[in-house]
Amino acid sequence: NAGVTQTPKFQVLKTGQSMTLQCAQDMNHNSMYWYRQDPGMGLRLIYYSASEGTTDKGEVPNGYNVSRLNKREFSLRLESAAPSQTSVYFCASRRVLGDQPQHFGDGTRLSIL
Amino acid sequence: AQKITQTQPGMFVQEKEAVTLDCTYDTSDQSYGLFWYKQPSSGEMIFLIYQGSYDEQNATEGRYSLNFQKARKSANLVISASQLGDSAMYFCAMREGGNYQLIWGAGTKLIIKP
Fold first, then answer.
1. In terms of C-beta density within 10 A (0-12 exposed, 13-18 middle, 19 or more buried), how is residue B67 classed?
2. Which end of chain A is less congested by CB atoms within 10 angstroms, N or C?
3. Chain B residues closer than 8 Å to A46 by CB
4. Kind and range of the H or E element at A9?
5. Tens of pLDDT along chain A (113 residues)?
6. Residue B5, Cβ density class (10 Å: 0-12 exposed, 13-18 middle, ≥19 buried)
């Protein structure tokens, strides 16, 4: 079972470059999420999509854009990467039925030089 | 104010002992959910256990149980008979009201000693 698949797993960018992180889930989940995790901190929500066709800002949306391409796919774009965006990025999804847990991808480790 | 507080940045525990990881939360909503996740050194986030605010019984999943004390707003994770493979970061998270997103604590790093 693939679950939530993130690509790429690792990436190094130069300041000012753009990049799109891809996320796809095969669990027929309605909601999808993008988080960043910095050392010594918990997860911080960047953007989420409650259902196909909707997206909303989370706690730290500045410098990012998202696209919910279809029910399966939710991408995160850095238009002009900055060193402060060096982090581990996680995509998650969940079924919207009661309090279902979020299921996570393995993460993308992104370094911006 | 912190919505989710995990007061133990790190813990060392002897193998086979029971472990309690603390989590306190702050919400004025009557409906909320509490989640615990494990993050091993390999990096993935693994869901462990869930407690709903209206659940009268403490949640249990194998060696994991959740000590839910609603009046004290605490939702501590208890791991019985700890194993070396339990060494990981543990995160507490809360869903408030009708929100779709979770609020996360900073985590506790648990190291099990042989």
1. middle
2. N
3. none
4. none
5. 679 999 999 999 999 999 999 999 999 999 999 999 998 778 999 999 998 989 999 999 999 999 998 999 999 999 999 999 999 999 999 988 778 899 999 999 999 99
6. middle
